[in-house]
Recover the amino acids of this structure.
């Protein structure tokens, strides 16, 4: 049809089942703010919280009347700006149309009661660790590189030797049995879920030894593995601390999850237009969620958006045809995915480092300019990026092909 995306969104219906009463929304601190909108943390109580929780857990939970749910609320900054309210309304409709996917920041509900006054609140899933970009910046000191600097081989089992403190295994039965190769871990001790340390000589953990309090080395942080197989830094109390290390595998796993979410968006014919590490959010259990896929794209405090004609655009993430003709498609999202991969494997560097983006940027891309291999990527990963940056959009891989390629990297060769 000749309908623009805006017009199509306008035609989508709003279902009253999403409506959450303001009485049940308890606003907290601001998480971020942009040119038009803000994101505020909030707690939702009552029926909406129960509904969301029971959906999440396949209806296995018995809903308790006191349940509450932490959410993020997207709202306008000023009630004056009608165009932003419109954009938010369309975002709400798109989210409702999309349906749920694990790797999207899903809609929880909305409050339209003050829409006449230009106020609309959209309630979405809260992602505890914020954007992947800010996560990479905050945690880059605890990154474990699993790529061999000489031959570029990637072994997800490698635990970097630069970690000088002992490695602990949590004696959670599921972990013990799934850890087939403990020889890669410098395991000397482990601790159980209660924080009791167990002696471990690299083989199977045996009971006993000391409590954290009596551990002579308990003032050192220690590396452990939680029940999801994720590495966690335990502080002296045996409680996971803030700075859990992350590895090359984490980056691949995050990229794979982003590809899964994008594949779902593409299957629903929704074009993101602003895929970037700043728009990937990290939630509990190492789940990556794609955010800001509606129409209310906002310019948060970042220099990523450059003025082009009368709009601010994320030029370094844009494909040749998107810069040239403002032509945004699934394939231009794939180009942006390539740039996002580059961001991940450079631990959050700014794309095209040191380059001043001027009017010649498009010409440079057309002449074949592409970014170099990022510091923590290997040839396999760089090859995926280069495929995403093919000038001919039809030659770029699909999100399902990308997700398969990333998944293959996660499976160690036998
Ligand atoms: O990197 P951050 O801490 O994570 O800063 C940005 C900011 O708001 C502007 O986008 C944070 N943010 C956005 N959406 C969410 C969400 N659903 N859950 C948690 N934080 C969010 C983001």
């Amino acid at each position: 049809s000749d309908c623009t995306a805006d017009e199509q969104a306008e035609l989508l219906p709003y279902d009253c089942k999403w409506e959450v009463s303001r009485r049940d929304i308890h606003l907290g601190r601001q998480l971020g703010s942009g040119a038009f909108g803000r994101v505020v943390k909030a707690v939702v109580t009552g029926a909406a919280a129960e509904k969301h929780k029971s959906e999440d857990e396949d209806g296995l939970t018995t809903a308790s009347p006191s349940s509450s749910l932490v959410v993020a609320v997207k709202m306008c900054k000023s009630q004056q700006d009608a165009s932003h309210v419109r954009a938010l309304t369309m975002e709400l409709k798109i989210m409702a149309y999309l349906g749920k996917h694990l790797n999207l920041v899903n809609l929880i509900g909305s409050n339209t009661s003050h829409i006449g006054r230009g106020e609309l609140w959209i309630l979405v899933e809260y992602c505890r660790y914020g954007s992947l970009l800010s996560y990479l910046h905050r945690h880059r000191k605890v990154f474990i590189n699993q790529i061999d600097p000489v031959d570029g081989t990637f072994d997800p089992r490698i635990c970097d030797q630069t970690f000088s403190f002992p490695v602990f295994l949590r004696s959670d039965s599921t972990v013990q049995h799934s850890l087939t190769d403990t020889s890669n871990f410098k395991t000397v001790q482990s601790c159980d879920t209660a924080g009791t340390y167990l002696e471990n000589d690299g083989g199977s953990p045996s009971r006993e030894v000391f409590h954290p309090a009596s551990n002579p080395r308990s003032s050192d942080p220690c590396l452990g593995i939680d029940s999801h197989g994720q590495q966690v830094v335990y502080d002296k109390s045996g409680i996971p601390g803030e700075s859990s290390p992350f590895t090359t595998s984490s980056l691949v796993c995050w990229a794979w999850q982003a590809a899964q979410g994008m594949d779902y968006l593409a299957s629903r014919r929704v074009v993101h237009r602003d895929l970037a590490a700043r728009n990937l959010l990290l939630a509990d259990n190492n789940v990556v969620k794609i955010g800001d896929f509606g129409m209310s794209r906002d310019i948060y405090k970042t220099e990523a958006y450059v003025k082009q004609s009368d709009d601010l655009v994320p030029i370094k993430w844009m494909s040749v045809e998107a810069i040239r003709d403002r032509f945004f498609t699934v394939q231009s999202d794939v180009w942006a995915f390539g740039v996002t991969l580059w961001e991940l494997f450079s631990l959050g560097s700014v794309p095209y480092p040191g380059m001043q983006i001027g009017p010649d940027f498009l010409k440079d891309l057309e002449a074949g300019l592409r970014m170099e291999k990022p510091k923590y990527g290997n040839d396999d990963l760089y090859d995926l990026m280069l495929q995403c940056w093919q000038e001919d959009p039809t030659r770029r891989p699909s999100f399902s092909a990308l997700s398969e390629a990333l998944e293959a990297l996660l499976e160690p060769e036998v």
